Amino acid sequence: MTSPAVDSTTIDRILDEFGRDPLLLVQMLRRIQAEYGCIPPAARTQVSEALGLPPSQIHGVAEFYHFMSTAPEGKYRIRISDNITDRMLGNEAIMARFCERLGVKRAQTRADGRVSVDYTSCTGMCDQGPAALVNGLAVTRLTDDRVDEMARLIEAEAPLATWPREWFHVDDNVRRRDLTLRTEVEPGAALHVALKRGPEAILRELQASALRGRGGAGFNCAVKWKLCREAPWTPRYVTCNADEGEPGTFKDRVLLTSQADLVIEGMTLCGLVIGAQRGFIYLRGEYEYLHEHLLEVLRRREREGLVGRDVLGSGQVFEVSIHLGAGAYVCGEETALIESLEGKRGIPRVRPPFLATHGYLQHPTANNNVETFAQAAQIAVMGGHWFAAAGTEKSKGTKLLSVSGDVERPGIYEYPWGVSVRQVCEDAGAVGEILAVQVGGPSGAMIAAGELDRLVAYEDLPTGGSFMVFNTTRDIVRIAQNFAHFFARESCGFCTPCRVGTQVLRRTIDKVVAGHGSEMELGEVEEIGRIVKSMSHCGLGQTAANPILDSLKRFRDQWEDRLGTRDFVPDFDLDKALAEARGLTGRDDALAHLDR
Ligand SMILES: Cc1cc2nc3c(=O)[nH]c(=O)nc-3n(C[C@H](O)[C@H](O)[C@H](O)COP(=O)(O)O)c2cc1C
Ligand code: SF4
């Protein structure tokens, strides 16, 4: 298909809307993508000239993000969520039905340019799948009837605004409330405390609470804010990581829907403590439907003096803007997030230096997860000891879990840290006999039924919030395959071990699933997994092999059952790829190096 004709006044309007600020390049390109279904060459040239950026940078950004493309996509762009939970809910049949009804092939645009259909990584709707994005907006609970009706509306070229509203409805599905979801904090209450008692007192409360970051890594929140506050240069910044890309995680979605005030209160509190005047919410592209809601909350808080040029009459400034991601899991990694906020490709930076001193525009930046900010605001009001009374020695307070998979009641469960996996499974109504539970998403840990008494806590099983349950009707190798495809799709390609290693893992597992695997492949998968884990630049590569290694350790019999004897002609050279993954000259070199 040829690129659509570009109207230069439209591009000018988009550029003006974003103040022609090169830092907002990702936001501008998102808008152009929405307008034209791609980022046409003429638009790239115009943006490059207007912003004074090299054409290669515009092209590089347009190629990097999954929700942007340089080739034309359909007027209606359907992206079907492909987390394992969507698979379990029948997303392959949904894909087949869309393709059949619309006369289009997967990953292609129909010849008349009307529609394109493809898979996308988890859209954060695992409690109400199978889900999809239609022109960026989340659609939940897809059924055959809905697909047929959508196909009819697409053929009639009905604008999305006229589609039934209930298709776009997203439920919170909160099933268990504890400290955070039970405790009401009046908007502004934490800010009043901060202004009355001062930043040092807030840091003392945070220290007493022992709050650790809820995004996964578990870094001490008080230490992070203190480091930022003490960094000897300004301006300083606050970033809220609302990228929530780990498959199976959807608790930030619910906080941003129903507790947005609390999250923004936490960000503003952080601004007062570290002396920042600007904050950013980095909202994953899949949650675009929340954008307007968050803007409304921000506007109201501005009217109420809770954010903006003069926070509660103190003379202190704290302004918040929202940046939308564009479909790149790696942008949840905090340094990649900052790169994206600066209008670039989301390639993780080399650390140190850390964000606390060298973050946004190389300035001190406190980056926290959505849940961390919400809990920090509550701690300011309720006190550090209130929070620390719950949980375990190394994991204080409570944690929101996003529970999905083979359970009767998928949704959000808040527990004090230290709850057993068994308890969560019982509360959520695990269906059938449990085979495995994936705690912390694909990058976390896969445990077997014999380990259900293990604890969700930093001492045992840490998690950013994903909790997926699989019963004995499920196929472990297929689960590992889904996760391997996820990491191969989401690797940013910056470093060789991850770029090559995730592809090799994916293809080797595909080979096993196709019945062409042998014991040798299982050995290869383990070896490559160890290389990718130990040699990758960032957390994505370092954890990409976890589900494969965990499942091989616990369910080797299931893998062995899949081994076949059919002849197989490899379409890639494993030895060469393995050596390339290590940047060494031969496979034996790579393995010898590993053994040292
Ligand atoms: C590949 C990758 C993806 C990540 N995605 C997220 C995410 O979506 N949300 C998040 O809060 N943290 C994510 N993290 C962790 C962040 O890098 C960072 O540790 C976190 O935002 C810090 O906030 P916290 O201290 O409040 O947890 C991710 C890390 C990696 C390596
Ligand atoms: S480990 Fe993977 S995602 Fe991370 S920098 Fe390397 S290629 Fe990119």
Give a verbal description of the structure.
The structure is a single chain. The protein is α/β, with parallel strands linked by helices and 596 residues long. Helix 10 runs antiparallel to helix 11 (221-230), helix 12 (251-258) packs across helix 13 (260-274) and helix 25 (574-582) crosses helix 26 (587-595). The longest helix has 18 residues, at 496-513. Bound molecules: flavin mononucleotide and iron/sulfur cluster (SF4). The site of iron/sulfur cluster has 14 residues, from helix 20 and helix 22.
List keywords for this structure.
17 strands, alpha/beta, 596 residues, single chain, binds flavin mononucleotide, 44% helix, five-stranded mixed beta sheet, six-stranded mixed beta sheet, binds iron/sulfur cluster
Largest sheet: 6 strands, mixed
**Which stretches of 5+ consecutive residues score pLDDT under 50?**
584-596
Percent helix among the residues?
A: 40-55%
Instruction: Note the gap between the termini.
Output: 53 Å
Number of helical stretches of at least 4 residues: 26
Strand neighbour order, sheet with most strands? 6-12-11-17-14-15
